[in-house]
Amino acid sequence: MAFFSKDKIGEKFKQRQEVHKQHTILIVDDDEPNLRSLSRLLEREYELLTARDGQEALDLVKNAPDPSVIHLIISDQRMPNLTGVEFLKQTIPIIPKTIRMLLTGFTDIDAIIDSINEGHIYKFITKPYDPDDLKVTVQRALESFDLEKNNLELLTVFEKFVPKQFLSRIAPEGLQYLQFGKAKSEKLSILFAGIHSFSSLSETMTPQELLDFLNTYSQQISQSIHHHHGFIDKFMGAHIMALFDRVDQTREAHAQDAVQAAIGMQKSMNEYNLHRTQQGLFPIEIGIGVHTGEIIVGTMGSEGRMDSTALGDSVNLAFRLDSLTTDYEAKILISDAIYRLLDGRKF
Fold first, then answer.
1. What's the number of CA atoms in the CB half-sphere (13 Å) around residue 184?
2. DSSP state letters, 86-142
3. Residue 304: pLDDT above 70?
4. Half-sphere exposure of residue 192, counting CA atoms within 13 Å on the CB side?
5. Which of 7-11, 168-172, 245-249, 312-316 has the lowest mean pLDDT?
6. N-term to C-term CA, the chain
7. Which of 22, 126, 232, 269 is the most exposed place for a label (fewest CB within 10 A)?
8. pTM value?
9. Lowest-confidence range among 38-52, 153-167, 271-285, 313-327?
């Protein structure tokens, strides 16, 4: 295993891209025989990077083209310039998901206590270490890394179907603990938006044209909801339901967010309709109803097929306000409960 200076970091990482090993391990040790021994033990199964002290290793991490490719760090504790604990601490903001192990002797009790308190060490490897035990420990650590990575990727995909604000309620301990029939009651602000004369409009389109239109329309008005700290609970054909519950904010703030989002949505529709008329298409009108009150959020369906949901009288009232915008020729209707929370605020 060849050693390298920080001037060759880019070259080393470029070489790594040509190696088809699944995981990369950074080994840090000022004891060259021990560094070579660790390298020989692991190089057959893993791509290795090495450094001879904490500062050199830190420079490697900071200047790496993509430091996240370092999946595991094995660092000695007693080294010049930077101790193992000090080095590992400084890598946390740069590569927070990387697994860290510390090579230490039983006499390094202060380092062990410090590492436990900081919570950034996956496992301590005591010297002298057993080679077979070390290989098993590394394997299990990287299996843990892969599992966490897969969970994050799954969560990212899942959040496209169920908003993270909903997941934090129905599965607060993690996606793997998602339960059927779990529900809780909360006071939130609710927004319903619906397209006027949607049935007549849909009859003039092919199924693909209708789907394309709904996707474009949804993207257009969703921006204002997200900008004002809301999240979309459901797309229901011509209707969109959004909830507002900014963390650590009052119900007054939630009400203001919902109303600001409604105003922004109507402004977005003005821009969207300008684009439509330039293409020779009819403008689209939407009505928006906003209410605040107690709702039930949870999961419903069956063990084999469940869905997230928000329901209750407050949800029904927001939907009715949306429907009444046609009768009152209004773009936005708010309930008395929302009005009282606005406290005379002008928009």
1. 11
2. HHHHHHTTTSTTSEEEEEE-TT-HHHHHHHHHHT--SEEEESSPPHHHHHHHHHHHH
3. no
4. 26
5. 7-11
6. 67
7. 22
8. 0.54
9. 153-167
